[in-house]
Amino acid sequence: MDYLAERIKCVDASGIRKIWQMAREMTDPVNFSIGEPDFGPSDEVKAAAIKAINEDKNGYTLTTGIDPLRNALAEQVTKQFNWSKPSVLVTSGVSGALQLAFMTLINPGDEVLIPDPYFVIYKHIINMLGGKCVFVDTYPDFHLDAEKVAEKITDKTKLIIINSPSNPSGSVYQNEELKAVAEVARKHKLIVLSDDIYTDFSYDGPAANIANHYENTIVMGGFSKAYGVPGWRLGYMAVPEHLAELFDSMATLQQYTFVCAPHPFQIAALTALKSDVSKHIEDYRRKRDLIYNGLKDSFGLIRPEGAFYAFVPAPGGNATEFVTKAIKNNVLVIPGSVFSEKDTHFRISYASDDELIKKGVERLRMIAGN
């Protein structure tokens, strides 16, 4: 008897499972695979979480989140996008926000436009819901061409996903690129979902945002990356006032799924919002430069502009083959096929110690024969 629901069969984890199985045999590994910061929260943020726990702020909150945090986030969103009365839902990470939005918006057969390469969760949740992923090729420079977006739109298109700064490419879309995509979305009356989890990690100036150009945008952000708390599972989504029905529907869905985000961490997030993370951003700009300067000549790497990833062309054009060779030489990287419909690149996460980055760069150059 087949006990599994059909939807779970849409998720093919065989490729990444094989990579992790190989990685178990590594000795003295350089791990470039994990997309989490190598720093933790500040002492003040940790103290705020501990204080909240000790004061028994351990029960449920309102489904939408505690008012002080929602108000603080709404103020931030208003300042950034000039929205008069944004509605804010505190979520269990940006991944939780994505699941709520997709479940609320996508009917079977609906098409979702996704720039390729992409964050892995998009494809699999959309497929599980019976939606259709329509990929917009951004190779080789990983920037988004509005004309390519327009070419992919049909009468079944429902949603466009924007992730900038991007995982896995590290690209940051320019303001004019987003403005052009906004015009396409407006013409076809589409919803845009802007996944802004890496917005602080923009190394050549503040990251532009499509929400400044398009009114039907869902904005998503989180605390995992900039504040070093990925295990807290704390994020949020914000929508403008005229999308109140959409917001209410997502809040209702949260009530019957995640219930609420972790209570003590919501309280600690208020302290985090007041934190200065510029030192971390400077550190990661340096790490980006270590990766780029170390690999550009040997691999033809395009300079990442944000996040903490590099999407590196694989020698010979086959990423899975190169990744297999890299793992045998104790460097753990992820093949592009995990993040893309192509398998020509591999992803590096440089959220790591500087000396480890240097060691990994040296090993990769050796593997590539340079």
Task: Write a concise keyword list for the protein shown above.
370 residues; alpha/beta; Aspartate Aminotransferase, domain 2; 2 domains; seven-stranded mixed beta sheet; three-stranded antiparallel beta sheet; 12 helices; 40% helix
Q: Could you give a quick summary of the protein structure above?
A:
It is built from 12 helices and 12 strands. The protein is α/β, with parallel strands linked by helices and about 375 residues long.
Fold and architecture overview:
With 370 residues, the chain is an alpha/beta fold. It folds into 2 domains: 6-40 and 277-367, Aspartate Aminotransferase, domain 1; 44-273, Aspartate Aminotransferase, domain 2, CATH 3.40.640. The chain contains 12 helices and 12 strands. The chain has helices at 14-23, 43-54, 67-81, 93-105, 120-128, 146-152, 175-188, 244-255, 263-273, 278-299, 319-328, 354-367, and strands at 30-31, 87-91, 111-116, 132-137, 157-163, 191-195, 217-222, 235-239, 309-313, 331-332, 334-335, 345-349. Helix 6 (146-152) runs parallel beside helix 7. The longest helix is centred in the C-terminal third of the chain and has 22 residues, at 278-299. The radius of gyration is 20 Å and the shape is globular. The N and C termini lie far apart (53 Å). The model has no long low-confidence stretch (mean pLDDT 95).
How far apart the termini lie comes to 53 Å
Helix content: 40-55%
CATH class of the largest domain: Alpha Beta
CATH architecture type of the largest domain: 3-Layer(aba) Sandwich
- Average pLDDT confidence is 95
Shape: globular
* SS element count, helices: 12
Secondary-structure class: alpha/beta
Low-confidence stretches: none
Beta-strand residue fraction: 15-25%
| Number of DSSP E strands | 12
| Helix and strand run | HEHHEHEHEHEHEEEHHHEHEEEH
How many discrete structural domains?
A: 2
Which fold name fills CATH's third level, the topology of the largest domain?
A: Aspartate Aminotransferase, domain 2
Kindly provide the radius of gyration, computed on alpha-carbon positions and rounded to a whole number of angstroms.
20 Å
In the sheet with the most strands, the strands line up as: 2-8-7-6-5-3-4
Give the name of the CATH superfamily of the largest domain: Type I PLP-dependent aspartate aminotransferase-like (Major domain)
Biggest sheet details: 7 strands, mixed
